[in-house]
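Work Package 3 (structural annotation) set out to generate three-dimensional models for the target panel prioritized at the project kickoff. During this period the team completed the workflow that converts sequence records into discrete structure tokens, so that structures can be stored uniformly alongside our sequence database. As a representative example, we reproduce one entry of 153 residues exactly as it appears in the project archive.
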Amino acid sequence: MSALRDKLTEVLEQHSVPATPALLADLENACRPRKRVEVNSELAGLEQVFSELTNLPKPSPGSEKERRAAAELWWQPLRRVMAACNGQAERCLRQAVGDMRRDGKRIYSPRSVENTAVAIWAERGGEQMSRPPADPFAGLRQMMDQKEKSHGT
């Protein structure tokens, strides 16, 4: 058994939850970092959404200088929005583009929308969800506490 599986089993036992192989596999999968392919596909999807919303063509750089410019104006801002908005990047990006258009602001690349999208996320209570809890089992403990309260009363 792996150290992660051992820890998961220990926490589940503390809360009288049967450590079934399926549950352990699901929890192990949830604890794994996301694969680069997943991040890149999310980035590509966000890039497509931005392009459709703004009617700006996605960059297709040829030279090294064009690649650096595309990274600075497109890919890096989109990655920062993805990281800051905690799974809500598309929704925040859509609202940011709409708000900026309504306010008469010009949009030239994702970099011009980045701060607005992150601000929208924060205004909607994003700080509560900004980072995963320090305790990877906090959600499980909270669920078990709620279950105990509902069955105990």
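The first helix runs from residue 3 to 14.
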